[in-house]
Design a protein that fits this description.
The chain is α/β, with parallel strands linked by helices and 576 residues long. The protein has 20 helices and 15 strands. The chain binds one RNA strand of 76 nucleotides through helix 2, helix 6, strand 10, helix 12 and helix 13.
RNA sequence: GCCCCGUUAGCUCAGCGGAUAGAGCAUCCGCCUUCUAAGCGGAGGGCCGCAAGUUCGAUUCUUGCACGGGGCACCA
């Protein structure tokens, strides 16, 4: 009996009880949900329906439960295939079900049949969702903080895809023309570039303390790359000539973006789409968006600037869209960008931002509301800051100055792509993340990703061993022979994957999957280890029928581990 | 001052309105003639920040308070 069948049975029993006049009618029956109790002594499934109906029906929960149970038993007994083994009323009025063994083979057969598809659902019904993440400014490398956003965004996108949405992954490049920061960035690169040709300039370092100078060694790295690409072609650029700098800025920026793409690829992230803020300006989308706000009467002029009356939609204060000097503000581009996303036909937008951008949620949603779009169709995921511990000290990462911790050099090269992704996804986005680089470098059992991947490698080693012994992996087996408690526990966990993925997708919380993986790995290790103490409990035991059943079980475990790792973009090594 | 996030075991954190609140690390005690010990079993350790409210039932929802972090530009 499946979960759905049990729910139907309960609904039917309530209907019978109502027909018999034993319980009253309710306006609307709440959706029936049944849980898998944490405590296995409480059975396979538990329903709290009697507790929920107690109030509207004005009956004590326990007696209500007794009536419902009576009808459930009658219905089950009358069915062609009675499948409830035991049913009991517990505590304040829970109805606990123990089903006959049939569910266990069903779960395994389902996994074997679905293979890579196991865990997917069609809840999204193909609706189009755009997930935008990382979106680092083109003035430096991808940092560890971007890495957290990248891991979360990529996992959320993957979860949505598994939940049946049509997902697009997008990176938004803030290369706006009115950017003072970008000019300073280019100026800094050219200064370091000139120093490569002029020893005296390098020694004197006249602008070493200039306000506009970007600190950090990565600027020098970019200058070196620039020299490799263009040689001495731009050696004579006047650092104080804003126009000349602005003209050459693009060269610098393209190099930076290429580098970002490389770093992201090393992290396993590839975007479907890159949108440039400059193109929104050039194509007139920004002007268009602002004009629409003006036409809709959502703006006003004040002291020469154009303001968006965002307070009308719950923002703290109104926002300037166009400065008194005629240039657009950052949010003008951002508003146009979000408007444009919906124009491209997406049903749902997900933005992944650092918590330091939390203040932008209200104004962005306000803009959508002003366009007459339901702001609920934009989901903004804020993740708390990443803190880095190195040599026992907290390192503060800063984009403008030095101390930048680069995702590639400082994390991926140290602990590997999989470990980095796993650590980023181990915690809820709402919690600050500490990464102790020294500890993470250890690559020991303390590292949970190894624990999980090792479980997968172990499943593979069983098949390896079987093959050496000339034992073929059976296509089917008598799964009713899986009678050990460790086996039942394992299969119950395997059964949870579709629910876990659906839940994590619905909540936009990938960390549930890392927890699931650890739990599943632990149950597999326990199951496996039982064979170390008792050879009869090994997968490759004497009894061929039991052995075949266990091989099918291990195959299902391998599939589920692989699928769950895959959702998070983690590899499933066959050997470790 | 206002907005967002947090407060659960020594530490870092899970916990989807339910039953005896969990995991990892750390500490202590056990298990290698092994299908991979990169593993497993066991023990100790909790006013779930405080106070109200809603509920049959609150660690979970609401409000207030306290403490900690982040954010409050005609910067991006």
């Amino acid at each position: 009996m499946t979960k759905e069948q049990l729910i139907n049975l309960i609904a039917l029993a309530i209907g019978r009880a109502q027909e018999a006049g034993e319980i009253g009618q309710v306006e609307s029956l709440p959706p029936l949900v049944i849980d898998v109790p944490k405590n296995r002594a409480h059975g396979d499934y538990a329903s709290n329906i009697a507790l929920i109906l107690a109030k509207p029906l004005k009956m004590p929960p326990r007696s209500l439960a007794e009536i419902v149970v009576k009808h459930i038993q009658a219905l089950d007994a009358a069915s062609s295939e009675p499948s409830i083994d035991a049913i009991e009323i517990a505590g304040p009025g829970f109805i606990n079900f123990k089903l006959q063994g049939g569910w266990l083979p069903q779960v395994i057969e389902d996994i074997v049949a679905k293979g890579e598809q196991y865990g997917r659902s069609n809840a999204g019904e193909g609706r189009k969702v755009l997930v935008e993440y990382v979106s680092a400014n083109p003035n430096g490398p991808i940092t560890v903080a971007h890495g957290r956003g990248g891991a979360i965004g990529d996992a959320v996108a993957s979860l949505q895809a598994h939940a049946g949405y049509d997902v697009t992954r997008e990176f938004y490049v803030n290369d706006a023309l009115n950017s003072t920061q970008m000019n300073n960035f280019a100026r800094s690169v050219f200064y370091r570039y000139q120093q490569l040709f002029d020893e005296q300039l390098a020694k004197d370092d006249p602008y070493g303390d200039a306000d506009w100078l970007y600190g950090g060694d990565y600027i020098r790295d970019i200058a070196i790359e620039f020299r490799e690409r263009y040689g001495a072609e731009y050696e004579g650029v006047d650092l104080h000539n804003d126009e000349a700098i602005a003209k050459l800025r693009e060269h610098v920026m393209n190099g930076t973006i290429d580098q970002q793409k490389e770093d992201l690829a090393a992290f396993g992230i590839v975007f479907d789409s890159w949108v440039f803020e400059s193109q929104l300006y050039e194509s007139g989308k920004v002007r268009e968006a602002i004009s629409e706000l003006v036409e809709r009467g959502e703006t006003y002029e004040h002291e020469g600037a154009l303001w968006f009356r965002s307070t009308k939609y719950g923002d703290d204060k109104d926002r300037v869209l166009r400065r008194s000097n005629g240039s657009y503000t950052y949010i003008a581009g951002d508003i146009a960008y979000h408007r444009e996303k919906f124009h491209r036909g997406f049903d749902l937008l997900v933005d992944v931002w650092g918590a330091d951008h939390g203040g932008y949620v209200a104004r962005t949603k306000a803009a959508l509301s002003a366009f007459g779009t339901d702001a609920g169709r934009l989901k903004v995921l804020l993740f708390q800051l990443v803190r880095i511990l190195k040599d026992g000290e907290m390192v503060r990462s800063s984009k403008r100055r030095g101390n930048i911790l680069e995702l590639k050099a400082d994390l991926i090269d140290e602990i590997g792509k999989d470990a980095a992704r796993f650590f980023f996804l181990m915690r809820s986005s709402d919690v600050p993340l500490d990464i102790d680089l020294d500890l993470a470098k250890e690559q020991s059992a303390k590292n949970p990703v190894f624990y999980v991947q090792y479980a997968h490698a172990r499943t593979c080693s069983v098949f390896e061993k079987a093959s050496q012994l000339g034992i073929a992996v059976p296509a089917a087996a008598d799964l009713s022979l899986l009678t050990q408690q460790t086996e039942a526990d394992l299969v119950k966990k395997l059964r949870d994957l579709p629910d876990e993925i659906a839940y994590a997708a619905r909540q936009y919380e990938p960390h549930h999957i890392t927890h699931y993986l650890r739990e599943l790995a632990a149950l597999f290790h326990t199951f496996y280890d039982a064979g170390n103490n008792d050879t009869a409990l090994r997968v490759l035991c004497e009894d061929a029928a039991v052995r075949d059943a266990r091989l099918v079980l291990v195959s299902a475990v391998r599939t589920v581990l692989r699928n769950a790792l895959g959702v998070l973009g983690l590899s499933a090594p066959e050997k470790m």
